[in-house]
Amino acid sequence: xxxRTAVLLEPFxxxxxxxxxxxxxxxxxxxKPLVSQELSFYESLPLAMRQFTPQYKGIVSVHLKxxxxxxxxxxxxxxxxxxxxxxxxxxxxxxxVTIWHKCKWAASTGTGSEHTLVKWSHTQxxxxxxxxxxxxxxxxxxxxxxxxxxxxxxxGNQPERNSYNPWGLHCHRQHLNRMSSKHNENKLHEFLLLxxxxxxxxxxxxxxxxxxxxxxxxxxxEEKKARHIKKCEQSTSASxxxxxxxxxxxxxxxxxxxxxxxxxxxxxSPEGFRQTLYQFLCxxxxxxxxxxxxxxxxxxxxxxxxxxxxxxxxxxxxxxxIYDGQEHKExxxxxxxxxxxxxxxxxxxxxxxxxxVDVRMIDFxxxxxxxxxxxxxxxxxxxxxxxxxxxxxxxxxxxxxxGK
Length: 404
Fold this sequence. Notes:
By secondary structure, the chain is of the alpha+beta class. The protein has one domain: Inositol polyphosphate kinase (D-amino Acid Aminotransferase, Chain A, domain 1), CATH 3.30.470. Helices cover 30% and strands 21% of the residues. Strands 1, 2, 3, 4, 5, 6, 7, 8 and 9 form a nine-stranded antiparallel beta sheet that branches. A hairpin with a 4-residue loop joins β5 and β6 (71-77). α8 (292-307) packs antiparallel against α10. The radius of gyration is 22 Å and the shape is globular. Pfam families: IPK (PF03770). InterPro entries: IPK, IPK_sf. GO terms for molecular function: ATP binding; inositol hexakisphosphate kinase activity.
């Protein structure tokens, strides 16, 4: 495998939720630390569910490596296990132009194994975000990543015009801290390669929803189980079967992304959840009513599939709703060909409705099903907690669509 190019991993700039760091492998591929239970799910994925999950692309070995400047990087080493993916044509030494992953590490006082993060500069952030979002520059000169409160203050107030989502950087920093404190540079870690489901969008608006009325896996300790049950009881997970875990929505009036994190989502009442869902479909100027029907249709199609999946329990998994913040102008046609216009417009509408939005299930580290390689309880019938959440989500979107 000597001819295979080592790939410098970067934090995935459009990660809006979760706690595990998602890394960008190439334009169409992300990777995340391998969890055997999640791998088992992807390897035995029911055919009907494939349109609602990221494409599984294989496994890659990853290790820590310091460059000549002492910056700690994550390097992927494509192996024979890795299925065919478009590779980043970058050498390891090219780290000076990809800054999000390139955090300077300095030994903190005390033990030499602990490291602290040195802040990165605005110009470096600008470069990476311009690469990830063609079009307008999304960053303002006063923007800085803060390590204290990520998106809002103690009173729940937050700057409404965050121009990027810092959640992915927060997860990345924590992940590198854990890896560097526990393992040496030569230690190989296995990562899953998955489709980057937002790669086709210029301004990806993403809603991350934690689905179901139960979040703890069968393997959870009593302490963790109690913690997750409490989170569900105190949030819309119990009342609606769904809660907001993260969000970014492009605001055309300001040219920035508005962001919400999981702590914001946990505090919402059912009415607050409905208002945030409405906000997710607002671009700063108007409600994107054109998206409601395709999203509802896609959610109904998913609901139909989930109802047929006996023994599956999607504990702690998320559902992503995605659309492009850049509106597509409707096709126009000559006035003297009215029938042709009607026909082509109808065809265009039918073909673009479903590509304009996307709905994907992600995060299957605690998913269990009959025949799974991981030994867990076997359940009968479909996941009623997940179905309850989907039904309520569809109902709320239908009410928004009807102007209620």
